[in-house]
Amino acid sequence: MTNTPHSDTTTQGIRIQAAAEFRPQESEPKSGRFVFRYKITMHNVGEAPAKLLSRHWIIVDADGRREETRGRGVVGEQPKLGVGESYAYVSYCPLPTAWGTMEGSYTFERDDGSRFQVRVGRFFLVPTAPPLTLESASH
Predict the structure, then answer these.
(1) What angle do CA 122, 21, 103 make, to 5 degrees?
(2) Which of 42, 47, 91, 116 is 20 to 30 A from 34 (CA-CA)?
(3) Residues 72-95: pLDDT tens digits?
């Protein structure tokens, strides 16, 4: 299997697809600023609704520096996914190096109050990634 800049993982009925693209018009390589835009699409392929509560990202740059971020929801929202529903959003990640990786998890909650972690598989922040298709992004 070859490395691609995309990620596609499913945990407890929640499928997460991730992809990123380099934003040269927003980057300043001479100043050590490389900006990447990434799109996350969540699909509830399971048998019960689930609401996203929080996120946890692990970002590693080309020099091996690791940064972790945690927060409530995504882009200011906490989407609830009914069975068969999807939600997509676009966000940004600046790096001090020309490439890096992102991976992490989302905390979801079922209607009965039970919580579970949904994995976001590693995806690559690289200048050679194919452009994102953003038409289906709901945010």
Answers:
(1) 15
(2) 42
(3) 999 999 999 999 999 999 999 999
